[in-house]
């Protein structure tokens, strides 16, 4: 569709204004994170601090224990995402490619449970973790996330689109089913694996609900949990809170900017982020 | 793009048409590989999905304070929540209001953005990045940022309103404005919808627009007669997903308002959380969680049902 010049200019303007409006809260947060408490509470609001208070970031890191929280989030997210990709892709491979007695029954059972929301299962899950004595452990943070019903389903749909003749060719060439998985299915499903990886990365990195339940001690706080707890504790120290929020945003933004194309296609593919 | 339900349905059909495996030496090898490949997933499924669902079913019919053994009370939890619990109805009211306002408004906004991004504008990719950015950052950080924006005294929003000589509302500190504030804030993250719609728009074949133009259709007519019908399956999908997601709002209310003031933002999931993990009424909380499931399921099914009247599927005779 070709647009006339005047229309193009006005659309361009609308787009730019909209983008400015969306960026506004970000800039506000960054600006507040570099101000003194006095500047933060001034009216009219100050946008450029007189002297940027970089020490706010130091204070945030010290008060909120953010270094440790970053490390915890990184460990939990990495192990969960990698584990999930392995577990789900193996499961999806079995569902999509390997015939064995009971497979279809399992798959039907799986489909039947897929619509049931997380919040139904979270109470039994919590009591399970609690009675196993796993409250306050990495295991509690990581294990339930290793297995993702949605991920298995997504990958199975993906694998189903790969021609079965490639499997047959591998078998004729003397390969076995693990060769098919490693050298045919996985390399041809990079887009699907990437989509699932990004989807779980966002979900696990950002989640608050589960860590709130299973973690009590500061040493195991994930980043969202550390921020949430600090919010209650240092409620008036707005500039420090904003510094902490900026720190929490940076890793996701960096990953997002690096993998932007994959992010966009993963959302378009899975459409599942809330 | 098809909805998840449609995919599930198709998968089920594929299964029904599936063949029985024969067991030869090769088949046995394949079956063994199958069992090995499936076992980590199957273990996870049994422990973290199936068992909890069955347990949740049982727990919802008990009174269970976690430290003592659960006591079977039949449907009394459901009886209590339906007929004796004002807070339950408050949480339903708050959640439904949130969904009713948030879902359509964000759908319209993200569609508008997607249409903009689909034009040949300068810096399109940069703008797409900016629009999508708010949807990826942690909700906890988003919430903290907006607490500060909504701050009645020093917040940027009321400072802006003050420029017009009016004093802005108390936002999240007022029982009247807290829910609208959370709805406004949720609109900041329209990027997800935009990306889904944009993918849909780019899938519409150009020849349809060309044919419409030759037939003398103007921009508005092309939008109504080509874009909307062709996009309607994606719209349905995005709406259902957004409804499911919006019903489960928790983090914002937990961080920003703690359900207040005066239970004005006591969303259903927050109420489940309180019952289970603050008051340790595990049985009652499970019953609430099942209600959440049923409400979301009924609404999703109703939307899918209604879609027969407004969703256009290519290659189907009749339709819109």
Automatic annotation (TrEMBL), chain A:
Keywords: Cell membrane, Membrane, Transmembrane, Transmembrane helix, Transport
PROSITE patterns in the record: ABC_TM1 (PS50928)
Tagged with keyword Disulfide bond: no
GO annotation, cellular component aspect: plasma membrane
Alphabetical GO biological process terms: transmembrane transport
Compartments in which it is found: Cell membrane
A Pfam family this chain is assigned to: BPD_transp_1
Keyword Transcription regulation in annotation: no
Domain of life: Bacteria
TM ranges: 66-93, 105-126, 138-155, 193-214, 234-259
Main location: membrane
Entries under CDD domains matching the protein: TM_PBP2
Membrane topology designation: Multi-pass membrane protein
Family statement drawn from the similarity comment of this UniProt entry: Belongs to the binding-protein-dependent transport system permease family.
Protein name listed in UniProt: Carbohydrate ABC transporter permease
Organism of derivation: Caldilineaceae bacterium SB0661_bin_32
TrEMBL record, chain B:
Keyword GTP-binding among UniProt keywords: no
Protein location: Cell membrane
PROSITE patterns: ABC_TM1
Membrane topology recorded in Swiss-Prot or TrEMBL: Multi-pass membrane protein
Organism encoding this protein: Caldilineaceae bacterium SB0661_bin_32
Alphabetized InterPro entries for the sequence: ABC_transporter_permease, MetI-like, MetI-like_sf
GO terms of biological process kind: transmembrane transport
PANTHER family referenced in this protein's UniProt entry, alphabetically: ABC TRANSPORTER PERMEASE PROTEIN, ABC TRANSPORTER PERMEASE PROTEIN YESP-RELATED
Name this polypeptide is given: Sugar ABC transporter permease
Glycosyltransferase is among the record's keywords: no
UniProt keywords, alphabetically: Cell membrane, Membrane, Transmembrane, Transmembrane helix, Transport
Ranges where the ABC transmembrane type-1 domain occurs: 92-303
Family, per entry: Belongs to the binding-protein-dependent transport system permease family.
Transmembrane segments: 32-59, 96-117, 129-149, 177-201, 222-247, 253-273, 285-304
GO annotations of cellular component type: plasma membrane
């Amino acid at each position: 569709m070709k647009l006339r010049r005047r229309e193009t200019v006005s659309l361009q303007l609308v787009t730019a204004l909209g983008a400015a409006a969306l960026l506004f809260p970000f800039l506000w947060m960054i600006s507040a994170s570099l101000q003194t408490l006095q500047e933060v509470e001034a009216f009219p609001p100050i946008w450029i601090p007189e002297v940027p208070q970089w020490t706010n970031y130091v204070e945030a890191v010290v008060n909120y224990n953010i270094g440790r929280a970053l490390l915890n989030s990184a460990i939990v997210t990495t192990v969960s995402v990698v584990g999930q990709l392995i577990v789900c892709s193996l499961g999806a491979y079995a569902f999509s490619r390997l015939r064995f007695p009971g497979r279809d029954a399992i798959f039907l059972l799986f489909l039947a449970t897929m619509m049931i929301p997380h919040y139904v299962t979270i109470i039994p899950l919590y009591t399970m973790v609690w009675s196993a004595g796993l409250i306050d452990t990495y295991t509690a943070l990581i294990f339930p996330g290793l297995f993702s019903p949605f991920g298995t389903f997504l990958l199975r749909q993906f694998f189903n689109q790969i021609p079965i003749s490639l499997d047959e060719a591998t078998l004729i060439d003397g390969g076995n089913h693990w060769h098919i998985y490693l050298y045919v299915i996985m390399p041809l499903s990079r887009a699907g694996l990437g989509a699932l990886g990004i989807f779980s990365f966002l979900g696990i990195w950002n989640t608050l609900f589960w860590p709130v339940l299973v973690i009590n001690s500061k040493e195991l706080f994930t980043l969202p949990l550390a921020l949430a707890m600090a919010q209650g504790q240092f409620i008036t120290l707005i500039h420090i809170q904003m510094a902490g929020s900026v720190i929490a945003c940076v890793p996701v933004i960096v990953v997002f900017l690096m993998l932007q194309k994959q992010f966009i296609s993963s959302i378009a593919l899975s459409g599942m982020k809330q | 793009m098809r909805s998840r339900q449609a995919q599930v349905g198709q998968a089920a059909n594929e299964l029904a048409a599936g063949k029985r495996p024969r067991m030869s030496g090769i088949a046995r090898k394949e079956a063994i590989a199958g069992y090995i490949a499936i076992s980590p997933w199957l273990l996870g499924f049994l422990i973290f999905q199936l068992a909890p669902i069955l347990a949740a079913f049982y727990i919802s019919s008990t009174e269970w304070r976690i430290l003592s053994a659960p006591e079977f009370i039949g449907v009394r939890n459901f009886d209590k929540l339906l007929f004796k619990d004002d807070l339950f109805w408050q949480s339903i009211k708050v959640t439904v209001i949130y969904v009713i306002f948030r879902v359509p408004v964000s759908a319209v906004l993200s569609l508008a953005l997607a249409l903009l991004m689909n034009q040949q504008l300068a810096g399109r990719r940069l703008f797409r990045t900016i629009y999508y950015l708010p949807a990826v950052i942690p909700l906890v950080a988003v919430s903290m940022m907006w607490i500060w924006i909504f701050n009645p005294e020093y917040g940027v929003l009321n400072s802006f309103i003050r420029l017009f000589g009016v004093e802005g509302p108390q936002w999240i500190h007022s029982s009247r404005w807290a829910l609208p504030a959370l709805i406004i804030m949720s609109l900041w993250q329209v990027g997800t919808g935009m990306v889904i719609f944009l993918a849909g728009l780019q899938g519409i074949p150009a020849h349809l627009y060309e044919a419409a133009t030759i037939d003398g259709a103007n921009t508005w007519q092309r939008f109504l007669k080509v874009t909307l019908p062709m996009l309607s399956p994606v719209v349905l999908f995005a709406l259902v997903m957004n409804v499911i997601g919006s019903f489960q709002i928790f983090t914002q209310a937990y961080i920003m308002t703690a359900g207040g003031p005066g239970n004005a933002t006591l969303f259903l999931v927050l109420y489940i959380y309180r019952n289970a993990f603050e008051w340790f009424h595990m049985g009652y909380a499970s019953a609430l969680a099942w209600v959440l499931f049923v409400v979301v399921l009924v609404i999703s099914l109703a939307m899918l049902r209604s879609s027969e009247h407004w969703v256009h599927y290519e290659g189907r005779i009749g339709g819109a």
